[in-house]
Amino acid sequence: MRYSALKILAEGLTGNRGWKPVWRTPEPKAEYDVVIVGGGGHGLATAYYLAKEFGITNVAVLEKGWLGSGNIGRNTTIIRSNYLLEGNQPFYELSLKLWEGLEQDFNYNAMVSQRGVLNLAHSDAQRDAYARRGNAMILSGADAVLLDRAGVRKLAPFLDFENGRFPIQGGLWQPRGGTVRHDAVAWGFARGADSRGVDIIQNCEVTGFTMQGGACLGVETSRGAIRAKQVAVCVAGSSSRVMGLAGMRLPIESHVLQAFVSEGLKPVIPGVITFGAGHFYISQSDKGGLVFGGDIDGYNTYAQRGNLPVVEDVCEGGMAVMPMIGRARLLRMWGGVMDMSMDGSPFIDRTGIEGLYFNGGWCYGGFKATPASGFCYAHLLATGGPHDTAAAYRLDRFRRGAPIDEKGAGAQPNLH
User: Fold this and answer.
1) Which end of the chain, N or C, is more open, meaning fewer C-beta atoms within 10 Å of its C-beta?
2) CA count, 13 A, side-chain hemisphere, 256
3) pLDDT greater at residue 29 or residue 164
């Protein structure tokens, strides 16, 4: 079934009796060409592009819970490509370009809203750093506008421009950045993959890998063994646990990242705004809620919940840049488990085990990378070689002395 305005009108006039399930509920087969472990955004996008771009449809996506129960439904929905380093910027620009045509591509309303992303600068040094970042963005084909104080005031007059401790000196604005409805992304990719013959199997937890002669021949699951020519893992914050079942130790730590939504308010935030003197970012949903977040909790955990000190820190950041937020009531909060890499950049690579592939280490950047991650992972699985924009995302880059340290924070995942 293809969705359209005419279809909605026709169904409305006939009692909405013609709608069909968005995807099937198949039983797992004994063998597939590709088994994708993880039914989040990256896993579903990989399956979609394998089928659409490379014609590989004998694919199963295994999800231990329900679609959208992981990080794809637990984030602040921001998309952007305002990166600096050569290993990152072209990849995230590819992702933003895929976002721009995604709804038409998979015929599903993901509510892509390119309202812009504004990073505030609070010192001369930070403004100079943003100028360098903006130039790097432009060189890779992205858009970037360096704003002075007056330019920021015109865009967001409600900010605290009289704050002596955190003076707003300017900002870096990416007009093409914005937000997307997170769970709709999962549903759209799932629908697109399913319609091309991919089996999406929910409530199917991977409990081990079938190994023989140093090669991976499939997976053991809560619903039985499944053989596969290729096994592709992309399970975000559970990466260390799942890859540990194959005897692999990853340069990744799992931390929880909290996010928050306020009560519904009249439109006030024009796009996405980030606080440059602390870690705070905010946007406003279509329902009026202020969606915001900040730092990860410093301890390692697999729990999808956080603690009060980070709640206080995030709210302090909001109050510092826009005191009006103190009048809003907090409606709900949640936590997503982040797979934090040692340099803050991800991995899309084959492992040392034949037939086993890994995608992870996305830190804060997982949601915005969803289309490009799926596209590049599918390219790796289908061709055996990395996509040009993901060539630096190797698992062995630390051994080779080639980290992609976007923040310059060193090998401390809690700082990324």
Assistant:
1) N
2) 18
3) 29
